[in-house]
Amino acid sequence: MSMPFIKRFVAQETARRRELILAGAHGLVGAAAGTGLVSAFARSEPTLAWSYRDRSNPYWHAVVSGAESFLEDNGHKKSALLHLLNNGSSEKSLADIKALLSKTGGKVAIACDANDAPNCRPVVEAVQRAGGHVATVWNKPDDLHPWDFGDNWVSHMTWSDEGPAEQTARILFQAMGGKGAIVGVGGIAANNPAIERHRGVMRALQDFPGIRLLDYQPADWATQKAHQVMQGFFTRFGSKITGVFCANDSMAYGVLEALRAEGRKLPVVAYDGTPEATELVLRGELLATCFTNPHWGGGITAALAYHAAIGSFKPSAEPRAHREFYGPTILVTQRDAAGFKKKYISGTPKYDWKDFWAPGRGQIMYAAKP
Questions:
Q1: CATH topology of domain 31-159+293-327
Q2: CB within 8 Å of 72: residues ≥ 6 apart
């Protein structure tokens, strides 16, 4: 992989996002999509949907590919999956889900990232009122729990991002020799993973007094916006910048393109473990990334919602560790990137989609409030 890849990726992301926006304007995506998608299952089956940001992002592409694998392994065509694309809008996320609930009479199994934590409550409340089933990932308030919604809110999975983000930050600081100044490029401010990954950086900084944080700005998980944020950092700080922390891989691509344009090579770390980022780690253009196994996460979230909806198991009969749990994380550095690529990228592992909690890392734990 070479740096021109990054430029192509920025252009492709922009084009795909434009296509999705145009499609949405013409009613071609989201809950208002053609009736064929909603009726893709047999009449006795619930409609299976994934509500997420957009498929132009490699992470979300892997998520919904996992859901499609679950469908195929379960004897359905992958085209049976209804894609509710919110393009980063919490309002659209909720509106699409409400429209789908109305269209199906609540006979749905929804896998969902609510886009930000506050949006989770109205989403699960709408699903409960309609008698549907939803399994969520990533974003929810700490005081909102699936067991307070009976069987309708099946489960919530997140990833313990603070610790892995601290690890990647430490790798960055060590590569800088424990001195210098960094900038940080973060996700959507109200996103739980964005908050936790920022905390991880700040925690690592406590042990590196020789490193200064110049600024940390959100780029909303997007390549193009990260490119603009990094250009702004160069305008403000110039040669003072000696390292970059990126809260996901897609934003790292924009940062690397900005570095190329400036003719600079700086140590950069990222997060998500996408195939493209893994190649960049192998080539030494990224120091590290962190894999959250989005293929398994997307498939198992869809599987949980689907099996709860058809009555294969009763969520309210499960222990709390099965209602809220952490997904797996794997740190990827140049030392182990080749082995990681062989196992998770060159060949996708096969999963038992009824073994819901096997790769999980236990019940979600919340920080004590002061």
A1: Rossmann fold (3.40.50)
A2: 78
15: number of Cβ within 10 Å:
11
Q: Which is more confidently placed, 36 or 332?
A: 332
Of 244, 253, 243, 247, the closest CA to residue 277 belongs to 253
Question: Which residues fall within 8 angstroms of residue 196, CB to CB, at 6 or more apart?
Answer: 160, 161, 162, 165
- The residue ranges of every structural domain in the chain are 31-159+293-327, 162-291
Domains 31-159+293-327 and 162-291 share a fold: yes
Which pLDDT score is estimated for 7?
A: 58
Residues 6+ away with beta carbon under 8 Å from 22: none
Return the CATH class of domain 162-291: alpha beta
CA-wise closest residue to 211 among 168, 173, 265: 173
Question: Is pLDDT at 36 greater than 90 in this prediction?
Answer: no
| pLDDT tens by residue, 73-104 | 999 999 999 999 999 999 999 999 999 999 99
CB of 70 closer than 8 Å to CB of 302: yes
